[in-house]
C-alpha cells in the first residue's frame, strides 16, 4: 500500500529520467532496517533488490548480505562487502554449485550455506576447512504462493531434515567448519506456525550437538511479509524476534555457549521503499472490460503475471486533478495476453476501481522495491530500465537505462 513519494516528486522524476522508471526511497529502507535491528545480524537477501547502490546503503547501516549466484557475490564485493570473519559479511546460499561459482566462493573465501550434500562434497574436495552453514528443509513450509513455499517434500530447497546426520558426516569427512544451521521455509509466511519452525530449529541443534558437532549461530531465514493491500497484517517484529530469541536460548542451553541469531529478509527491507513509474499510452474497451495500456510490462514487474500478486496503484494527472473511479484493467506493452498488472492467480483479469486514466497520465505501481528490478528481463527486446534512489530530497540515478545497441552487441560481431 506504500508510496513514499509525493505526486509532484514523481512528476519531476518522470520528466528528468523518463518512464518506465524504478524509484526507491532510502529513508524507508533505513526505517525497515531499524525495525529488525533487535536481531544481532541482519543479512539482506539481495535477490530482492541487488543494485550495488542499495547494497552500499545496506552496508552503511551494518546490514550483511546473502548472495545466491556468482553474480550476486561479485555485486556484494563491488558494494564493499568482504567475505570471511564471524559473522561473514557475505554468505553464499544455494542448492548446487556451477563450476564458476564454486571457483568464486573458494577464491574469495565466501562461507557457503549448503542446500545439498553434494555441495559439501564438492566444496570439501576443493577447499577443506571452508566455513559452511546447513540449510535445512524441516519438512513443512509456507508462502504467499505455492511458488514461494520453500519447505516440505515438494520443495527442491535445503537438506531434508532427516538427512542432517549424513550432512554432518560429510562435514566431518572433509574437515569443513560448521558455522550454523539455517532454515527458510518460504516468502510471505503466516506467523501462526512460527512456533513450529522455531521448535524444529531447536531439534536440529540438538541432533547436531548429539552427533558431536559444535556451531556458532542459527538463522531464521527470511520471509517477513509486508502489507500489499490495505488490511493486510503488518509484521510485529518484536514478537517475531521474541520467538526466535527464545529458540536461540533453548539452543544455547543445548550447546552450552552463546549462539548468534541471524535474520535474512529481502522483501521486508525494500518492498515498501519502491515504486514503478509508468505512463499511460493508450486505452480501449473490449466488451465489458476497460483497458488502460501503460509503457511498462511484465518484463519489468513480473509478480502479477507470475503469482497473481496484488500491487496497489495510483493514477497521477499533471494538473493534480483526480477523475472519478471506474473498473479498469491495467496492461502493458508486451505481445502476451498475460501482460496484465491487475490479475488473479491463474491469469484471470481483475478490473480494479481506478481514477479514469488518460494518455499522458502517470501510473504508479506501489511496493515494487522487492522482486521488481531484480526479476526483470529483456523480453520483447526491451532494454532494462533506469533506477533512481531518493535520499534526503536528492534523486540519484543508480542504474542507467540499458540501450538496444547494448543488447544487439551481444549477438553481433561474434
Ligand atoms: N533467504 C532465502 C534462502 C530465500 O530463498 C529467500 C527468498 C529469502 C531469504 C528472502 O525472502 P523474503 O524475505 O524476501 O520473503 N520472487 C518472489 C519471492 C521469492 C523469494 C525466493 N527466496 C516474490 O516476488 O514474492
Automatic annotation (TrEMBL):
One Pfam family per UniProt: Orn_DAP_Arg_deC
Residue positions binding pyridoxal 5'-phosphate: 223, 264-267, 371
InterPro entries: Ala_racemase/Decarboxylase_C, DAP_deCOOHase_LysA, De-COase2_C, De-COase2_CS, De-COase2_N, De-COase2_pyr-phos_BS, Orn/DAP/Arg_de-COase, PLP-binding_barrel
Residue stretches making up the Orn/DAP/Arg decarboxylase 2 C-terminal domain: 23-369
GO molecular function: diaminopimelate decarboxylase activity
SUPFAM superfamilies named among the record's database cross-references: Alanine racemase C-terminal domain-like, PLP-binding barrel
PTM annotation (N6-(pyridoxal phosphate)lysine): residues: 47
Keyword annotations from UniProtKB, A to Z: Amino-acid biosynthesis, Decarboxylase, Lyase, Lysine biosynthesis, Pyridoxal phosphate
Entry annotated with the keyword Heme: no
Essential cofactor(s): pyridoxal 5'-phosphate
CDD domains for this protein: PLPDE_III_DapDC
Catalytic activity: meso-2,6-diaminopimelate + H(+) = L-lysine + CO2
Domain of life: Bacteria
Keyword NAD (UniProt): no
Transmembrane segments: none
Pathway this chain belongs to: Amino-acid biosynthesis; L-lysine biosynthesis via DAP pathway; L-lysine from DL-2,6-diaminopimelate: step 1/1
EC number(s) from the headed UniProt entry: 4.1.1.20
Protein family: Belongs to the Orn/Lys/Arg decarboxylase class-II family. LysA subfamily.
Function in brief: Specifically catalyzes the decarboxylation of meso-diaminopimelate (meso-DAP) to L-lysine.
Protein name per Swiss-Prot or TrEMBL: Diaminopimelate decarboxylase
Gene (UniProt): lysA
Amino acid at each position: 500500500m506504500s508510496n513514499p513519494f509525493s505526486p509532484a516528486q514523481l512528476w519531476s522524476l518522470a520528466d528528468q529520467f523518463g518512464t518506465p522508471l524504478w524509484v526507491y526511497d532510502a529513508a524507508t529502507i533505513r526505517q525497515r532496517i531499524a525495525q529488525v535491528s533487535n536481531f544481532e545480524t541482519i543479512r539482506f537477501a539481495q535477490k530482492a533488490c541487488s543494485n550495488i547502490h542499495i547494497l552500499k546503503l545496506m552496508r552503511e547501516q551494518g546490514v550483511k548480505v546473502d548472495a545466491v549466484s556468482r553474480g550476486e557475490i561479485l555485486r556484494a564485493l563491488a558494494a564493499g562487502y568482504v567475505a570471511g570473519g564471524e559473522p561473514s559479511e557475505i554468505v553464499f546460499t544455494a542448492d548446487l554449485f556451477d563450476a564458476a561459482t564454486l571457483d568464486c566462493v573458494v577464491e574469495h573465501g565466501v562461507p557457503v550455506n549448503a542446500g545439498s550434500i553434494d555441495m559439501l562434497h564438492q566444496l570439501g574436495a576443493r577447499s577443506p576447512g571452508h566455513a559452511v552453514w546447513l540449510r535445512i528443509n524441516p519438512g513443512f513450509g509456507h508462502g504467499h504462493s505455492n511458488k514461494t513455499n520453500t519447505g516440505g517434500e515438494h520443495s527442491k530447497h535445503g537438506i531434508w531434515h532427516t538427512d542432517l546426520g549424513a550432512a554432518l558426516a560429510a562435514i566431518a569427512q572433509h574437515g569443513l567448519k560448521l558455522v550454523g544451521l539455517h532454515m527458510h521455509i518460504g516468502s510471505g509466511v503466516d506467523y501462526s506456525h512460527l512456533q513450529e519452525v522455531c521448535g524444529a530449529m531447536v531439534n536440529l541443534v540438538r541432533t547436531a550437538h548429539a552427533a558431536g558437532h559444535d556451531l556458532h549461530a542459527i538463522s531464521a531465514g527470511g520471509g517477513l511479509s509486508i502489507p500489499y493491500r490495505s488490511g493486510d497484517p503488518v509484521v510485529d517484529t518484536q514478537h517475531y524476534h521474541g520467538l526466535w530469541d527464545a529458540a536461540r536460548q533453548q539452543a544455547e542451553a543445548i550447546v552450552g555457549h552463546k549462539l548468534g541469531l541471524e535474520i535474512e529478509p529481502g522483501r521486508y527491507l525494500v518492498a515498501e521503499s519502491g515504486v514503478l513509474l509508468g505512463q499511460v499510452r493508450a486505452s480501449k474497451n473490449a466488451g465489458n472490460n476497460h483497458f488502460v495500456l501503460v509503457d511498462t510490462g511484465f518484463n519489468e514487474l513480473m509478480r502479477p503475471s507470475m503469482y497473481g500478486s496484488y500491487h496497489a496503484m495510483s493514477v497521477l494527472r499533471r494538473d493534480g486533478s483526480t477523475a472519478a473511479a471506474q473498473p479498469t484493467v491495467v496492461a502493458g506493452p508486451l505481445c502476451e495476453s498475460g501482460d496484465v498488472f491487475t490479475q488473479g492467480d491463474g491469469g484471470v483479469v481483475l478490473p480494479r476501481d481506478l481514477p479514469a486514466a488518460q494518455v499522458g497520465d502517470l501510473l504508479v505501481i506501489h511496493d515494487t522495491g522487492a522482486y521488481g528490478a531484480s526479476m526483470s528481463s529483456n523480453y520483447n527486446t526491451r532494454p532494462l530500465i533506469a533506477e533512481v534512489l531518493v535520499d534526503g530530497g536528492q534523486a540519484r540515478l543508480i542504474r542507467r537505462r540499458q540501450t538496444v545497441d547494448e543488447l544487439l552487441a551481444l549477438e553481433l560481431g561474434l
